[in-house]
Amino acid sequence: MPLQDKLVIALPKGRILDEAMPLVRAAGIEPEPAFDDPKSRLLRFATNHPHIDIIRVRSFDVATFVAFGAAHLGIAGNDVLMEFDYPEIYAPLDLGIGKCRLSVAEPSEDAESDDPSRWSHVRIATKYPEVTRRHFAARGVQAECVKLNGAMELAPSLGLCTRIVDLVSSGATLLANGLKEVEVIAEVTSRLIVNRAALKTRSDEMSGWIDAFRKACQA
Ligand code: PRP
């Protein structure tokens, strides 16, 4: 099959992948051995289905590949979907994996006496500037966002910002860095996402895979 006719599934690198792969496999998709070989530099992998390839990219990029139709299906958290708000993406299925929350945190000593509902202006380091601005604007607070791509937890103690907005799972990273969660912006789980145009033009194939993932989740 010509490469451009293949169905491409975008999966996120990192910790979600460990939770996602049992579902991908239960849906009947098995990547080639290089997928599990940490030494392999491949980014695109064949599967047991000659017409399906898997790509492995950063979690934010899963949404971008799917939005532009470069991948047809993908797995992305609603944190990423909220940040981009791509109209081309449809998220038909909550996979119930990657559970965490998107929260505001600040140095523990400030959090003791602080009341977030009284903030008027905040400077926030985050990977999620759009979600953060919208969240605070909705209650009339102007959030000045400093975009970081990781290790946000360092920023308050070094004076880059007074608060951060980041994913919190166990809370261990916040605790280890002297921060405290003061407000939850959203509960997060991973979703199966599809490109809307592909859902129209390849509807039988795409609906079949959405069903396969639904059954995998229920099993
Ligand atoms: C995420 C997040 C926090 C941490 C929270 O980072 O950005 O730093 O996990 O988890 P915890 O509450 O269980 O400590 P991740 O390790 O996924 O790496 P990233 O910075 O590359 O996103």
UniProtKB/TrEMBL annotation:
Gene Ontology MF annotations: ATP binding; ATP phosphoribosyltransferase activity
Pathway the protein acts in: Amino-acid biosynthesis; L-histidine biosynthesis; L-histidine from 5-phospho-alpha-D-ribose 1-diphosphate: step 1/9
Any one GO cellular component localisation term in the record: cytoplasm
EC nos: 2.4.2.17
UniProt catalytic activity: 1-(5-phospho-beta-D-ribosyl)-ATP + diphosphate = 5-phospho-alpha-D-ribose 1-diphosphate + ATP
Compartments it resides in: Cytoplasm
Database matches in InterPro entries: ATP_PRibTrfase_cat, ATP_PRibTrfase_HisG, ATP_PRibTrfase_HisG_short
SUPFAM superfamilies named in the record: Periplasmic binding protein-like II (SSF53850)
NCBIfam families: hisG (TIGR00070)
Primary role: Catalyzes the condensation of ATP and 5-phosphoribose 1-diphosphate to form N'-(5'-phosphoribosyl)-ATP (PR-ATP). Has a crucial role in the pathway because the rate of histidine biosynthesis seems to be controlled primarily by regulation of HisG enzymatic activity.
Domain notes: Lacks the C-terminal regulatory region which is replaced by HisZ.
Family, per entry: Belongs to the ATP phosphoribosyltransferase family. Short subfamily.
Protein name as annotated: ATP phosphoribosyltransferase
Organism of derivation: Paramagnetospirillum kuznetsovii
